[in-house]
Amino acid sequence: MISPYEELANAIVLQAAKDYRQALKKGHCQVQAGIERFFRSSWFGELTTIPSEMLISRLKEEAKS
After folding, report:
1. Dist. CA 58–CA 61, nearest whole Å
2. Are 19 and 58 in contact (CB under 8 A)?
3. Where are the alpha helices (DSSP H) in the chain?
4. What's the predicted TM-score (pTM) here?
5. DSSP H or E run through 48
6. Which of 4, 15, 20, 43 is 20 to 30 Å apart from 51, CA to CA?
7. Spatial distance between the Cα atoms of 26 and 33, rounded to a whole number of angstroms
8. C-alpha dihedral, 23 to 28 to 34 to 40, nearest 10°
């Protein structure tokens, strides 16, 4: 069973990925940079075990498709 804290952490990461997709789609460079800083932050590392560079790379590849 997943704890409420894990659910919150997952929701934060999913929302950041969603926001990043939108920023990529609309070409909002400042928003992209801010979200990339979050992905590379120690807080992101506390929320998930997903490698930040892999996530950024995959989201960029997805945006190209």
Report:
1. 5
2. no
3. 4-26, 29-39, 42-47, 52-64
4. 0.92
5. none
6. 4
7. 13
8. 60
